[in-house]
Amino acid sequence: MQHLGFKDRWQLWVATLLIKLGKLTRDTFTSDELTELANQFYPHDLILPTPVGDGHVTLQRGYVYLNENANRVCLQSLASIAISGLGTTLYRAHLVVIVSASPYYDPATATLHFQDLEVDDIRLINDDYALLQDTRYLINKRLPGSGLANLVAGSVKNMLSLVSVGTSDQALSYLQLYLAGSKQSILDYHRPQIRKELLGMAETLPLHHQMRSDVWREALFARYGKAVVVNGQRLEFRF
């Protein structure tokens, strides 16, 4: 109470009275309100291991929506992936990334937990940002005037070995993915790594929220709250 201004203390007192009279049984947060809370964690960078060069995924901005049937809170993010190596940008694309979790409220600690984190989707957006360097371009860049002719005469692996200066077989196999010219294939290769990094966020980002005494709605729920569930496109706090 000492952290609240007069108006907030009055609202807290009125809400408390309504709860005791059985007139107030729930409070709700909309998708837009939850999105505003989630936006404090953007942008967020994830390191992406690659056999050649450097890679990273950046979660740029997001939107919260709710899945009532599964009782899940879903966060859809616009992300960018960029992979560089051999002195150039090998691959870049925009992605839609969706993660979800189940809400659980612990009245004993007045803490809302988001548990059972899952990665629901990682998919490409085809737009002007997308770039995929064909390894023929890399060969010509490193061996001007003779690259394509030698590529026809010799094996791709041998040519890539020259370009990458004795890189490992794993790296050479990775570079050969670029010959196919499929942005989707590159994403499919990195999808398990992206998923692992996203799930690893649970260890670095807070997936819980303790009700605050200086926010009257949270102070109210800390006293009388019993459960939190998804109801339509709202997160419902039940007294």
Furnish the topology, listing elements before pairings:
Blueprint (H helix, E strand, L loop, with lengths): L5 H15 L5 E5 H8 L5 E4 L6 E14 L4 E14 L2 E19 L4 E15 L5 E2 L2 H8 L4 H7 L2 H9 L4 H8 L6 H18 L7 E3 L5 H9 L2 E5 L2 E5 L1
Helix pairs in contact: 1-8, 3-5, 5-6
Structural notes for this entry:
- The protein has 239 residues and is an alpha+beta fold.
- The protein contains eight helices and ten strands.
- The strands form two sheets. Strands 2, 3, 4, 5, 6, 7 and 8 form a seven-stranded antiparallel β-sheet that branches. The chain has a three-stranded antiparallel β-sheet with strand order 1-10-9.
- Strand 5 and strand 6 form a beta hairpin.
- The longest helix is centred in the C-terminal third of the chain and has 18 residues.
